[in-house]
Write a structure and sequence with these properties.
Elements: E1 2-7, H1 11-21, E2 29-35, E3 39-41, H2 46-51, E4 60-62, E5 69-73, E6 76-80, E7 85-88, E8 93-95, E9 98-101, E10 105-107, H3 115-118, H4 125-136, E11 143-147, H5 151-163, E12 168-172, H6 184-196, E13 199-202, E14 207-211, E15 214-217, E16 220-223, E17 226-229, E18 233-235, H7 237-240, E19 259-260, E20 263-268, H8 281-299, E21 315-320, E22 324-329, E23 332-336, H9 337-353
């Protein structure tokens, strides 16, 4: 049997499973999925879990079942493309014929002193649970600092405001305005929501250090009771340790077929892949569609196409609590209740398609 091994039950590998298990999986192919948890986690919703506005069960989706799918629980510690082998922390070794690496990312602390030790995270479901316990355990009037005003930081700040109206929330943004790479109308809407709901946006910030109960912004010392870090990501250690070309962000450089140039039996999907797009679930799913196409060519002994289609993104959706939202779709800005309903609908459809 030919063995396809998928590392990580993230958005990319879930799309690969959806396509392969439901349509013409070759009789001589078996699939092994390796993840630390026995379910798929909706990472785009971790902000709500951390804020306490949804339960743990809402951000989990069961893994598919199939007679030629084996799920292995474990922590991946090393990937050796030269040996065609993956090593787990419990000593298990998994060999493969084709490998898809979809292990996601971890927080990038940018060498800020104390950031790794003194901040909370929403990068994994486990870390989001810990963050929830900390934030919901704070006394009234406590101050929460959220470092990083990208989509994750914005959604966490707004959701936490609805969950805990008694907290002081400060959102630290390196830019002069929220979502500076998008139309000013979008920025103004989000900033207006924060102003109305007493979330302080600290623009042009530069966090130079973090202590147990303090943030250092430029030369200013800011007392805080908890800090959540949403200021960038980097590939996880097993991917970072692969001896292959990386971009300046540490993401893996690939050929047009999403393969390692020196190991064409290894594919990388999602946040670890060096692509001309910001990492997102949407990018991972579009990549996965192309990887499935390439795998079918390989399994059928066919030549690969000279070109692969360009990945075309539809835009993005963001929430401001449970009633308001914002979106940038087809170069158009959508704000308010409609944008929030769009996001809820997309989430419902995703969960329905994935069982």
């Amino acid at each position: 049997m030919r063995k396809l091994v998928l590392l990580g039950a993230g958005y990319g590998n879930m799309r690969i499973l959806l396509r392969l298990l439901n349509k013409d999986l070759p009789d001589d192919v078996e699939i092994t999925l390796v993840d630390r948890t026995p379910f798929h986690s909706l990472k785009t919703e971790f902000y709500a879990l951390a804020a306490g506005t949804v339960s743990d069960s809402i951000v989990r989706v069961p893994l598919p079942t199939h007679d030629r799918l084996t799920v292995i629980g474990g922590e991946i510690i090393e990937i050796r493309p030269d040996e065609k082998c993956v090593y787990l922390s419990d000593g298990v070794q998994i060999n493969y014929d084709e490998l898809v690496i979809g292990l996601g990312c971890e927080d990038n602390y940018h060498d800020v002193p104390g950031a790794a030790e003194s901040t909370y995270s929403i990068q994994t479901i486990g870390k989001s649970r810990v963050t929830y316990e900390k934030l919901l355990g704070l006394s009234g009037g406590a101050t929460v600092g959220i470092v990083g005003a990208g989509l994750s930081g914005i959604e966490l700040a707004s959701e936490l405001r609805e969950s805990r109206p008694d907290l002081n929330i400060k959102l630290f943004d390196r830019s002069p305005r929220i979502l500076r790479d998008f139309p000013e109308r979008l920025s103004n809407f989000v900033k207006g929501w924060f102003d109305k709901h007493n979330v302080v946006v600290v623009s042009n910030s530069n966090i130079t250090g973090v202590g147990p109960n303090v943030l250092y912004n430029h030369e200013e010392t800011i007392p805080v009771d908890a800090v959540v870090w949403t200021a960038g990501i980097r590939p996880v250690a097993p991917v970072d340790n692969i001896d292959t070309e990386k971009d300046k962000s540490g993401r893996v450089v690939l050929n047009i077929y999403h393969q390692l140039p020196d190991f064409e039996d290894v594919y990388v999907v999602g946040d670890c892949a060096a692509l001309p797009y910001a990492p997102s679930a949407q990018v991972a799913e579009e990549q996965a569609e192309q990887i499935v196409r390439v795998l079918r060519h390989v399994w059928n002994g066919e030549l690969l196409p000279e070109k692969m289609p360009e990945i075309k993104l539809k835009g993005f959706l963001g929430s401001l609590g449970k009633k308001q939202g914002f979106a940038y779709l087809a170069d158009r800005t959508v704000t308010g209740r409609i944008a929030r309903l769009l996001k809820s609908g997309v989430l419902w459809m995703y969960k329905w398609h994935n069982g």
